[in-house]
Amino acid sequence: MKLRLSVIGCLLGAAVLLSGYAIVSPNDPWPVPEKYEKMPNPVKADASSISTGKSLWTKHCVSCHGKTGAGDGTKAATLKTHPGDFTKAEFKAESDGAIFYKTSEGRKDMPSFKKKIPDADDIWSLVNYIRSIK
Amino acid sequence: MWVLVTLLSFQPGFSQDSTAAETPPEKPKQKPVKNTFESVWIIDNQTVMVPIKGTFEMDFQHRFGVVKNGYKDFFGLFASSNIRLGANYSPMDKLSVGLGLTKYKMTWDANAKYSILQQMTTGRWPVSVTYYGNAAIDTRPADNFVHFSDRLTYFNQIIVGRKFNDKISAQIAPSVSHTNVVNGYYSEPGKVSPERHHNHFAVSFAGRYKIKESMCLIANYDQPITKHKAGNPHPNLALGLELSTSAHSFQFFAGNYYYLSPQQNNMYNQYDYTKGEWLIGFNITRLWNY
User: ipTM score of the complex?
Assistant: First the structure.
């Protein structure tokens, strides 16, 4: 009986550990269609665009991605998927088109913003701002 | 009128780069100016903003009692409050239609808002112009009325707003309120005269100043214009703070309007700020995009 309880305890413990691991594990690969991967950013990253992007970032993104894009926003801990760290080289290597695609379409915890931000130029400005975050 | 002239003549203080004169400047794209305000509400008035197509919005509005009773009713927060629950939807761009229910007189309102003109980035249209109107019905028991039509009131408003720069926006909004029935008095034996007009004209001024990206100071002033024989309404002065997120707007303020229905406020407000008759209120909006 004791052995059975120990086995059940171990299984439960393993399940808890594994579920915890699943929460913090790296995100699944997020394939980006080639069309978007190679899409050039049509909005120049000037002061006006950065300002627009910052405003959108503060309104729509900060709560999960955090002020500096490190993925430490106030809501981040409640997400099933870590929002990613935009300060890392891995993210910086992504093309503007890829960031545009992911922002527009969304996936799992990441909502689609193409309805909330209906002007594509505004999403490109958001991409410009994300690029400017140090 | 001078306010309108000032509103139209004030230009944003963007500086010009003198070195740019040597290269032919790119023709900027002409687009509607966005986010003149953060919400469809600015305290007791509608803003020029109309949600984009497919937006469903819910409104939760409270007005508490006057603060001057102090601790007795905890500055009005424990006094009888007025509440409005509202919902609206934008079936197409520039148009929003909605319904609301207000606790005072159990008043249902059906409302519509249409963006007639939008301020453009290139200055082609220096202001945004929006129409807002509602029809409201008092749904208290029938023994409060003689005719069914006595239950009905209406409100129509033209809102002219301008975003001066990223921080400052302002609007001016003349309005007319109509009520089908007014109180009467015996002006001579056997003759009853109305104590007020059925139509009431007023004008509202409102503005916001952004302190941070998601935080604004907001202000609103409503001036009655029509003079009645009795029961003239007091103006409304309100100041507050607005916090906005991706899908919410929270406005907290102190002002003088209690009724939550614009025609009731404009025609019947009896709270006078010169006598310290302030009350605390809040508006919360939640947006969904479909």
Answer: 0.73
> What confidence score (pLDDT) does residue A27 get?
57
- Count up the domains in chain B and report the number: 1
| pLDDT tens-digit readout, B74-115 | 999 999 999 999 999 999 999 999 999 999 999 999 999 999
B247: CATH? 2.40.160.40
Structural domain including A38 reads: 29-132
Q: Is B48 exposed, middle or buried (0-12, 13-18, 19+ CB in 10 A)?
A: buried
pLDDT the model gives residue B12: 44
**Mean pLDDT, range B193-199, rounded to an integer:** 93
Q: How many CB pairs under 8 A join A and B?
A: 28
Does B11 map to a domain? no
Where in the sequence is the domain holding B245, given as residue range(s)? 33-289
Identify the bridge partners of residue B147 per DSSP, sorted by sequence position. none
Q: Enter the pTM of the model.
A: 0.83
Q: Per the CB < 8 Å rule, is B246 touching A116?
A: yes
Decide if B213 and A118 are in contact by the 8 Å CB cutoff: no
Domain for residue B22, yes or no? Answer: no
User: Which of A58, A118, A122 is closest, CB to CB, to B213?
Assistant: A58
B35 touching A (Cβ < 8 Å): yes
Could you tell me if B159 and B132 are in contact, meaning their C-beta atoms sit under 8 angstroms apart?
Answer: yes
CATH code assigned at A70:
1.10.760.10
Quick check: B245 and A121 CB within 8 A? no
Nearest by Cα to B109 from B75, B133, B129: B133
